[in-house]
Amino acid sequence: ETGIDGWLRYAPLSSSHVKGHVGNIPSTIAVLGSTKGGPLDTAVSEIRKGIHGIFGRTVKIASKKNACHASNTIIIGTVEAFEAACSDFPSGNQLKEDGFWLSTSHNSVKILGQNERGALYGAFEYLSMLGQANFSNVAYATNPSAPIRWANQWDNLNASGTHGSIERGYGGSSIFFDGVGHIKDDLSRVPLYGRLLASVRINGIVISNVNADATLLNKDNLEGLSEIADLFRPWGVRVGISLNFASPQLLGDLDTFDPLDESVVTWWTDKTDEIYSQIPDFVGYLVKANSEGQPGPITYNRTLADGANLFAKAVEPHGGIVMFRAFVYDKLDWNDWHADRANAAVEFFGDLDGEFDDNVVVQIKYGPIDFQVREPASPLFANLRKTSMAIELQITQEYLGQQCHLVYLPPLWRTIFDFDMRVDGKESKAQDIITGNVFNRTLGGYAGVVNVGTNQTWLGSHLSLSNLYAFGRLAWNPAEDSVSILEDWTRLTFGLDDGVLETITSMSMASWPAYENYSGNLGIQTLTDILYTHYGPNPASQDNNGWGQWTRANGQSIGMDRTVSNGTGNAGQYPNEVAAAYELPETTPDNLMLWFHHVPYTFKLHSGKTVIQSFYDAHHKGAETVQDFQFAWAALKGKVDKERFEHELYRLRYQAGHSIVWRDAINEFYRNLSGIPDEAGRVRHHPYRIEAESMKLDGYSIIAVEPAETASNYTAIVTNSTG
Ligand code: BDP
């Protein structure tokens, strides 16, 4: 199997699983509501396809006449259509936008959506039950936690430089853009992606990189965009794009992009009207402004709110939304001990609360820095009471092993969702802020940076797809349990074998803690190369870099002092109770100790270990954990199809090796820096390994690497040939 269908394989169930149940699978489907190629149509064809795949049975379309009372039938439609054709549906009023009702009672099934999209979601839910051989009778309504459940793609129109055509994408090139400035002719992957997204109830997608290219707005590309929107529409997925703030100058012929300039306002209004004339359900814009070289309103001394509202006013008459990113940290002097990138979002946005138009949503990365292996929740979530907010999560594993390492992310996301900000001294979990419940906002939700590509596995590895599946599930209900989501995904993706389920579940659940252990524990950040790749160990690059991601490590001590009393004051950006806890090492959990405090390597943690010994132990433990993954997976031979089995085995073996590289590089680096040996006496020693440098080299030379600790023998070899 290639993986192209993800968890929507509709693989046949074995006779032992379906025994006694096939008779209860309805043989007809009655459709109530429009059938004009929209999500309801999709729902019907998906149900027929699914039942055919799982049970080998053909479901016939029932005549509309007897639809309401037909037995042995799946009734599917909107609540409104059901009420018009059949009778009042008392549970209908429990539904919110996109919600649905599902009941299964022997051979009679009802799937009623608040809208067509809801009906499609209900269809996928029903198929998910069947695919897992769950034949129980159920009757319930379910609603989304928030209206915004979007995928973000960081796809480039041009595949320039070393970036490839998807920034931080590890599953091949773009399914949307041809790499030379246009939308692709072959868009055949788009509906397949729409299908995956719809099945986990994602209702919007921004298809272009936040580092945006103005040429997306040219006439040809807008036509292409409209084709893409047509392909996503049957799946209930609305399309949006990222904007380059300077477009009026870059693409138009204006000599300014000042958001308050009349000609600029007109330019954007016209451009937006043009888009809506082609794509009436266009979902809106995503904007990265004044960040990492992107242009923005600050250039003209305007506020970020002025910038956001410019677009908000343009899309407002069409019902569109502007997602404005809070990832702004330019112009800070990192050499100043009190400068802290973690403070930037609150510094830039805190004072703008209340200044954003109602259709602006501030999109906030989960932590205050940048998708690290462990961060506290961004303090901005507690600082905007009069502004709608969405959380930005990353499904593409930029700092987290880039899909070459298995890292199941929901346990990491849980630490953020469950993070209690204690706003006004009351429970206020981040998940309830995002949904709008804490501050009474009607807009809010989730943006997941997915970055699927043309690779048949979508993300580059089969197992990493559980993160996309889980993102959708959590956006619907952020309180859901990481294990049960994973189990559903595993059964749908790999079948119902208990051994497969047990292996994938235990490996996945162990994977994020293991990655944290070997890549950077105690809240020190993922110690990757920070300069560009964000992959592989490079603890030395974590200081004195221009990105403001610092560990402040020296020979005696390590960690960012983010206290109010001595440090950058970041702890003080949280509401009082949380701020007070992070102000003191005594009340800071070990896993965030170096995030908030600068302490000697000999500092004793709550665990009783010193910081340095905890580094050594964690890196050994993490690497040890993932050594087992390859063997656990290998034991599934014959239970997983050959193609996926071998693909993952290769990756898990690689991860086992790379975790050792990580372990040794980090431990050696801090041992050299601190001069304190590992009390367990473990030294870097690989008795069976033959270093490349020790071989007779023909056409290769030995070179020094920086930092030396990242090479197993302090040096590496390179080919003598150029290029
Ligand atoms: C960083 C990425 C960079 C993105 C940026 C962003 O390294 O590629 O452009 O975030 O989110 O994590 O804007």
UniProtKB/TrEMBL annotation:
Q: Which Pfam families match?
A: Glyco_hydro_67C, Glyco_hydro_67M, Glyco_hydro_67N
Q: Which GO terms describe its biological process?
A: xylan catabolic process
Q: What region holds the Glycosyl hydrolase family 67 C-terminal domain?
A: 460-682
Domain Glycosyl hydrolase family 67 catalytic, first and last residues per copy: 133-458
Q: What CDD domains does the record tag this protein with?
A: CBM6-CBM35-CBM36_like
Locate the Alpha glucuronidase N-terminal domain: which residues? 6-126
Reaction(s) catalysed by this chain's protein: an alpha-D-glucuronoside + H2O = D-glucuronate + an alcohol
Keyword Magnesium among UniProt keywords: no
Molecular-function annotations in GO: alpha-glucuronidase activity
Catalytic activity, EC:
3.2.1.139
Q: Please describe what this protein does.
A: Alpha-glucuronidase involved in the hydrolysis of xylan, a major structural heterogeneous polysaccharide found in plant biomass representing the second most abundant polysaccharide in the biosphere, after cellulose. Releases 4-O-methylglucuronic acid from xylan.
Protein name as annotated: Alpha-glucuronidase
Q: Which source organism?
A: Cylindrodendrum hubeiense
User: What's the gene?
Assistant: aguA
